[in-house]
Design a protein that fits this description.
Beta-Lactamase, 8-stranded mixed sheet, 689 residues, 33% helix, alpha/beta, 3 domains, 8-stranded antiparallel sheet, FAD/NAD(P)-binding domain, single chain, binds flavin-adenine dinucleotide
Length: 689
């Protein structure tokens, strides 16, 4: 989808004047996608709406989407934000949900990057985990937003909200209990006592989600024991009704031992790149395919020995539980198993369903009468798992009064038919860490705030991996005795965000320096010395200062070079005292992409001699070898997004900085990307990591 302007994007959320609907009718229900939609919406509101429309904003619904929207509004400086939540807690669906595993990207598997375990969001970020733990992580993020808001801002949170109605003038009436933050402290001491009220808002975000599943005996997010082995002998037969993601995940948990959405991918596909690539291509092409065609494509993959489906099947058969059986009831309009592959379920789940079927792991039925199925297979009523999905329309209509309904009935019908709110990042890079001019949330411009501008998510594990390396290079420089009393070393990794390619500082500065510069800062791929080294794919250093050359002349020419290299406000201007600079790009295995750029500078001149550069190149090469070794399994499943690296700046003539033809840039033997998460080190397969 082409990137939308804020104006075009805002229109897609518009329900009626000043009232926006967040994601309720969209396909691809995931926490991550809803959070991205929330950030997209707030970005477009802040960019498009006049200041007065952002004075007081109400968010209806305290799930992940509503909370993310509220956090983003506060973070960008909206003065008064009010959150209304129907239940007694924020994120009530997933709060305490220990049996569900959630992952930010797995819904898009096998697309590149989909198995990255971190959401990488600028606000309320989280990592794959039990749903209950993800709630805790996100609520910590929410707490931080509340702690950091300015004294001029107010947040009102109402829980246990009953009878909430919005009218066409954006007035809300409700009964609810006001709390502060998460802890539930009350400003006026009457916590728990509901009060009725009404208030007018300049803008309203309706984040009421998708509603509950009306036909289910228990909600998808409630704790249960489907994934656990039976404690009494014998085989228990379940009826799973439906074939959306909720139904399929439950089917897999009942039939596959120790099933988890991301772990199963490692278990079944880790050493089979050919199969993953074939599925990746098939997914890209599968949009317009009918169910039957997709099924035929899966069979084509099955019958081609190069894809190793036989081995996958054997592995899956070994994992089939012997204490359970499942009858899968297909929806009433489906008469044969090959016709259920056009369901809105994720590609991963559809392929696994195919594999499970081929492994004899389920019995499909087109029988519509539940009772007949139960009688035939001896299924007890409490072993029926009905997953027919939620009914978002009723959640939306519930919050709207007659006057508003009369003006937005057609719009609701339209939104219901068409999925149009993108779940890919639309905001511009660095947006969430740059003060908003319009709302003047934070004073801008001082060095400290600049150091945190354009901050992007940096996994702690990546920082932990990079820091000792930067320290080792700094130690080497110090051992030479020529690096002076102010020198520093860090490593920038290449970072892919949407269609952008950036260089992110992946460790704090090692060495001897008091100059600022935090890990996590991201710079354009073509900016500064590191950008020059990354685009030219060559080692860049300062030319030696000739004996007799004046220091001020050298400094002025170096500054001129830096200006030509587009050192923007996102980077700090280079310190006046710097005389030696080195940037060493580490090329990816394909030698087309850059994994990282090591950067070092010093206030002393002539530090980066040929010998020193040669040694640091060797150090980078050895470091690059280790990237793949520590996370071979995960990284092997993931390749760089299909983005061509940005080209070098045109007509660049530098006086002091030189790109070296020799030695050539170091390269990694196998790795494509430098990204480690702590979850990468959690053992998923005996002896695999
Ligand atoms: C069967 C099923 C399986 C799923 N599986 C996954 C999965 O594996 N991974 C994943 O990432 N996502 C999954 N999802 C999606 C996930 O549930 C949502 O993306 C997530 O809950 C965040 O969405 P939300 O905040 O938009 O909605 P919700 O979480 O539904 O939040 C909406 C909130 O609004 C409140 N509310 C509703 N009406 C009102 C009102 N009138 N006044 C005040 N408050 C109101 C509700 O109480 C609720 O707290 C699944 C969904 C379903 C239905």
């Amino acid at each position: 989808m082409p990137k939308l302007s804020p104006k075009a994007l805002l229109r897609r959320f518009m329900l009626s004047n000043n009232i926006y609907l967040l994601g309720s009718f969209e396909a691809g229900l995931t926490i991550y996608k809803q959070q991205v939609r929330a950030l997209n919406l707030v970005w477009s509101m802040i960019e498009v709406l006049p200041h007065r429309k952002l004075e007081r904003v109400a968010v209806i619904g305290g799930g992940f989407a509503g909370l993310t929207a509220a956090a983003a509004l506060l973070h960008k400086g909206v003065k008064h934000v009010t959150v209304f939540e129907k239940c007694a807690a924020l994120c009530p669906l997933q709060d305490g949900s220990d049996t569900r595993w959630v992952h930010p990207g797995i819904y898009d598997w096998p697309e590149e990057g989909s198995n990255m375990p971190a959401a990488g969001l600028p606000l309320l970020n989280w990592k794959a985990g039990r749903a209950s733990d993800v709630v805790v992580e996100v609520l910590h993020g929410w707490d931080r937003i509340l702690e950091n808001k300015s004294p001029r801002q107010t947040v009102s949170i109402f829980l246990n909200v009953k009878h909430l109605r919005i009218d066409r003038t954006a007035e809300v009436e409700w009964v609810g209990e006001q709390v502060v933050g998460l802890t539930g402290e009350m400003p006026s001491g009457n916590r728990g006592v509901p009060s009725g009220n009404k208030s007018k808002f300049e803008s309203i975000i309706l984040a009421v989600g998708f509603g509950l599943e009306p036909t289910a005996r228990f909600s998808y997010w409630r704790n249960e024991q489907l994934g656990q082995p039976e404690l009494v002998p014998g085989r228990r037969t379940y009826l799973v009704s439906g074939h959306g993601d909720g139904a399929l995940v439950d089917l897999f948990r009942i039939r596959i031992a120790r099933f988890r959405q991301d772990r199963i991918l490692v278990d079944l596909f880790a050493d089979n790149t050919k199969l993953v690539n074939a599925l990746r291509e098939l997914k890209r092409a599968s949009g317009p395919m009918s169910s039957k065609q997709l099924y035929a494509e899966f069979e084509r993959i099955q019958s081609n020995p190069t894809f190793g489906f036989k081995k996958l099947l054997e592995n899956l058969q070994k994992r089939l539980r012997t204490d359970t059986a499942v009858v899968l009831q297909m929806s009433p309009n489906v008469d044969a198993f090959r016709n259920i592959f056009r369901t809105p379920a994720s590609f991963q789940n559809r392929f696994l369903l195919f594999a499970l079927y081929k492994a004899g792991g389920l019995i499909p039925t087109a029988q519509k009468q539940e009772k007949l199925i139960c009688d035939q297979y001896g299924i007890a009523e409490h072993d029926i798992v009905k997953r027919h999905g939620p009914k978002p329309r009723s959640a939306v209509e519930d919050a709207i009064d007659g006057s508003l309904m009369s003006v937005c009935r057609l719009r609701i019908a339209y939104l219901e038919r068409r999925s149009s709110q993108p779940s890919t990042i639309c905001w511009s890079g660095g947006y969430w860490h740059t003060p908003s001019k319009k709302l003047d949330a934070n004073p801008a411009g001082d060095d400290r705030s600049k150091a945190t501008w354009r901050r992007e998510y940096l996994p702690q594990a990546t920082e932990t991996f990079v820091t000792p390396f930067a320290a080792a290079v700094a130690g080497y420089l110090e051992s030479l005795g020529s690096a002076g009393s102010d020198f520093r070393v860090t490593l920038h990794r290449t970072l892919y965000i949407g269609s952008e390619v950036l260089l992110q500082q992946a460790s704090r500065y090692a060495g001897r320096t008091s100059r600022l510069g935090n890990a996590g800062r991201a710079l354009g791929f073509r900016n500064g010395t590191i950008g020059h080294a990354a685009t030219a794919q060559k080692i860049v250093r300062t030319r030696p200062k000739a004996a007799g050359q004046s220091d001020s002349g050298y400094r002025i020419r170096l500054r001129r070079d830096m200006q030509k290299l587009n050192l923007t406000q996102h980077a700090q201007p280079m310190a006046q005292a710097v005389r030696s600079i080195l940037a060493v790009p580490i090329l990816a295995a394909n030698r087309k992409h850059v994994i990282a750029v090591l950067y070092a500078d010093s206030t002393r001149s002539n530090v980066f001699t040929d010998r020193c550069v040669g040694a640091i190149k060797q150090m980078c090469e050895r470091f690059a070898e280790q990237i793949e070794k520590v996370t071979a399994l995960r990284v092997g499943n993931f390749s760089v997004p299909p983005l061509d690296p940005p080209k070098p700046l045109r007509g660049l003539k530098l006086e002091i900085l030189q790109a070296l033809d020799k030695p050539s840039a170091p390269h990694a033997p196998t790795a494509h990307y430098l990204n480690l998460e702590f979850t990468d080190f959690v053992s998923v397969k005996e002896g695999a990591i």
